[in-house]
Amino acid sequence: MFFRVFPHFIRSLFTTAVDFLPVMVHRLPVFKRYLGNTQQKKVVFGQCRGLPCVAPLLTTVEEAPRGISARVWGHFPKWLNGWLLRIGPGKFEFGKDKYNHWFDGMALLHQFKMAEGTVTYRSKFLQSDTYKANSAQNRIVISEFGTLALPDPCKNVFERFLSRFEPPAMTDNTNVNYVQYKGDYYLSTETNFMNKVDIETLEKTEKVDWSKFIAVNGATAHPHYDPDGTAYNMGNSFGPHGFSYKVIRVPPEKVGLGETIHGAQVICSIASAEKGTPSYYHSFGMTRNYIIFIEQPLKMNLWKIATSKIRGKAFSDGLSWEPQCNTQFHVVDKHTGQLLPGRYYSKPFVTFHQINAFEDQGCVVIDLCCQDNGRTLDIYQLQNLRKTGEGLDQVYNSAVRSFPRRFVLPLNVSLNAPEGDNLSPLSYTSASAVKQADGKIWCSHENLHQEDLDKEGGIEFPQINYAQFNGKKYRFFYGCGFRHLLGDSLIKVDVVTKTLKVWREDGFYPSEPIFVPVPGTNEEDGGVILSVVITPNQNESNFLLVLDAKNFEELGRAEVPVQMPYGFHGTFIPI
């Protein structure tokens, strides 16, 4: 999915961590008492019984490198010619070693090729260095987000002990999303590595390291794009002056043959509010003129991450939800790189995916899928997802739901602006921005939904008509409803009327919806929705679904008799 974090700065912290290990051990009782005092009761967000087991959707599958002709029912529009590319985990063990977390599985690339009403499917495992190393030794050699690689069993006891003090290798298992830079497509996660891929053959062609071009230790798997192809992203950096968040710009075109992300620049650096525990983030917002970064109280404990291998813990052990901290919005002028002086805060929440952002009447409006509890990542341990019966129900009922919210950030706030007044001039939203006595602006959200979305389990994996409406005032977005731990419906949301259209088929689990516009149309919802729909029922086929984006009715489906795991993100590329 979409929820991975591997700060590359752990290499630079590792030596310091080893030096201070005696201090850490000495103070362990203090840490335990602190943790014991700050634990909170688990909040139950809904009750559900009798959930079907989805374990077959989270198990290792075989790749299908040769094209398989799909059986088409209904019809695929003749103008719909191109590739739907998706990626996600597809292999969850090597030999006797098993991964612990959904995000850890080896990247499996999926391709649906559509041409004049026909559909062909193929899939391939990404031949990353991590995949090759694991395969060669038939065990997990390189650690992932939720799984610590164990020492080589062929070494003696002393060598295995010493190996804990070696800097851990960074994974290049880029299993989160397809991203585009300078016309080329890359597979990305959140480490410093990306893998360039041939979208027709699904073959890896080159491994690219962000840190060879700019001073960052990684970048998100959700960049934004200007109409001319200029790409913006965000990354992290840890150095002598502490931790900072970086706004990155990559030029739209190549200057010379063989270029990748040459010419990338850091245009703004944002200091972390807390040096030792910066925020984890998965995406950010962008309008025509601004980048919006959200510093949220899902924290990365740098010390824990740096010492994870010594302590015998996975990287995920360094993440924690800190609800005593508020959420802060940072706004950056993407043309000048200037960080705007406004200090915008809200109550603590976590967002993994932004929906859209735009400017109106001197304000930035940003819409997000939000959760009020940041412990979601623990839910997606594979042992939880593969449970059955009451155990599965308990996991789901302990999970927090994600809902769409709107925030308004007034940009030009006068020093003389009255305290206590709502500074938002926008009459169409109840979201408010109120200046406090200390000069901070307190932002309260508007819910972009009614009670019927509660019954759908909330919404995630939001998508819009990106090519025509990203960074602009818009009306519709699409996502997955979650009446299960995996998406079990497709939803169209009208953010003006707050009404829904829902597609669901019992026993089937649709992927992130991808909007594809009808050529030549200016209508926001003039197009189709593509989604890969899978089932754990071996008597049924998985299929590529096509919906009319306007009325949300099915146009057709292309069935493929191949087992597929539930994945993360993807994109459509027209031919």
UniProtKB/TrEMBL annotation:
Enzyme class, UniProt record, top EC level: oxidoreductase
Coiled-coil segments: none
Catalytic activity: all-trans-zeaxanthin + O2 = (3R)-3-hydroxy-10'-apo-beta-carotenal + (3R)-hydroxy-beta-ionone; all-trans-10'-apo-beta-carotenal + O2 = beta-ionone + 4,9-dimethyldodeca-2,4,6,8,10-pentaenedial; lutein + O2 = (3R,6R)-hydroxy-alpha-ionone + (3R)-3-hydroxy-10'-apo-beta-carotenal; 13-cis-lycopene + O2 = 13-cis-10'-apo-lycopenal + (3E,5E)-6,10-dimethylundeca-3,5,9-trien-2-one
Gene Ontology molecular function: beta,beta-carotene-9',10'-cleaving oxygenase activity; beta-carotene 15,15'-dioxygenase activity; carotenoid dioxygenase activity; metal ion binding
GO biological process: carotene catabolic process; regulation of mitochondrial membrane potential; regulation of reactive oxygen species metabolic process; retinal metabolic process; xanthophyll catabolic process
GO CC annotations, alphabetized: mitochondrion
Location of this chain's protein in the cell: Mitochondrion
EC number, UniProt record: 1.13.11.71
Pfam families: RPE65
The keyword tRNA processing is annotated on this UniProt entry: no
Ion transport in keyword set: no
Residues annotated for Fe cation binding in this entry: H222, H282, H353, H569
Keywords for the protein's UniProt record, in alphabetical order: Dioxygenase, Iron, Lipid metabolism, Metal-binding, Mitochondrion, Oxidoreductase
Major site of localization recorded for this protein: mitochondrion
Record function comment: Broad specificity mitochondrial dioxygenase that mediates the asymmetric oxidative cleavage of carotenoids. Cleaves carotenes (pure hydrocarbon carotenoids) such as all-trans-beta-carotene and lycopene as well as xanthophylls (oxygenated carotenoids) such as zeaxanthin, lutein and beta-cryptoxanthin at both the 9,10 and the 9',10' carbon-carbon double bond. Through its function in carotenoids metabolism regulates oxidative stress and the production of important signaling molecules.
Family: Belongs to the carotenoid oxygenase family.
Record-given protein name: Carotenoid-cleaving dioxygenase, mitochondrial
Lineage: Eukaryota, Metazoa, Chordata, Craniata, Vertebrata
Originating gene: BCO2
